[in-house]
Amino acid sequence: MARWRPPLPETINHVPGLSRSVKITFVGHATVIVETGSCKFITDPLLVKRPGRVGPSRKVDLVLDKGALEGLDFATVSHGHFDHLDKRSLCMLPSIPVLCHPRLQGIVRRSCKREPVPLSWWEGADVAKGVRVTAVPAKHFAARPPFQWSLDYQGYVIECGDVTVYHAGDCGMSEYFKEIADRFRVDVALLPIGAYDPPSFRKHHLAPEDALDVLEILGARLLVPMHWGTFDLSYEPFDEPPLRLMEHASKRGLEDKVRVLKPGERAVVEVPG
User: Fold this and answer.
1) Has residue 5 been placed in a domain?
2) Which residues on adjacent β-strands are paired with residue 161?
């Protein structure tokens, strides 16, 4: 088990003229805890040192207040890779619904009898009063050797009261982002920015500049990057993704729309009304 220690100091990202506040904790990799006035949820829970017991080891400590998992309303699982669907991590959660692709509901149910809510692309579910979650397409691949080989990857749009959050899961560039933009008004986009080298990896993983393209395609108010700074999964320098992201954001005049959080850091961000 990774070592738990207190989170980094909470920061506030004030943007003049903006109103609605969202508390975001970047736990690491694709695990993010989002709190609005209407709900609290966790994405792709990964709360152990080594996913699947045989995967790569964390390069940073798991930084999370033990009380951070209290009050969760639901969890989302984007696909079946061990670093996104970890059975031990699901067992650490309270008894909450776990939204997943229908082909993963058996694995979810075997994770300490978690209750799956199976959703296929473009299907939605009302998981709480005023909270609707819709599964959206993603371009990726999936495998859970030796037994699980299936097309089970997707992202989620979470309409939580008056705030809409898009968790892209793990994905490469595709036409799906335009389709999502046509259907939803995204406030906060949680987009992956790591595992893009060698170049062939970009087929299934967004590079930092790709994430900025997606930000603009979605018309999102804010980009919070994920899928970096936790595991060494590819050839780019370990700390390069956020530096490369901000370099390109500066060139494109998008700095104010990007909020980089380090693993374990939490922030209160304000999004447009």
Assistant:
1) no
2) none
Pairwise CA distance, residues 44 & 33, whole Å: 10
Q: Are 90 and 114 in contact (CB under 8 A)?
A: yes
CB 225 within 8 A of CB 193: yes
Q: What is the pTM of this model?
A: 0.90
CATH number at residue 141: 3.60.15.10
Instruction: Quote the tokens at residue 9.
Output: 């100091």
Structural contact between residues 242 and 229, judged by C-beta atoms closer than 8 angstroms: yes
The set of residues, in sequence order, having a beta carbon less than 8 Å from that of 263 and lying 6+ positions away, is: 26, 27, 28, 29, 60, 63, 229, 230
Contact 222, 259 (CB under 8 A): yes
Residue 6 covered by a domain: no
Cis status, amide bond into 198, omega within 30 of 0: yes
Beta-strand (E) ranges in 29-152?
31-35, 40-43, 74-76, 97-100, 115-118, 124-128, 131-136
Q: How many independent structural domains does the chain possess? A: 1
Sheet holding 31-35, edge to edge: 11-13, 265-271, 20-28, 31-35, 40-43, 74-76, 97-100, 115-118
Which parts of the chain have pLDDT scores under 50? Answer: 1-9, 12-19
**Residues 180, 181, 187, 190: is their CA dihedral positive or negative?**
positive
pLDDT digits (tens, 9 = 90+) for 117-166: 999 999 999 998 889 999 999 988 777 765 556 678 899 999 998 899 99
Q: What is the domain range of residue 163? A: 11-271
Determine how many CB atoms are found less than 10 A away from the CB of residue 115.
12
Preceding amide of 263 cis, omega within 30: no
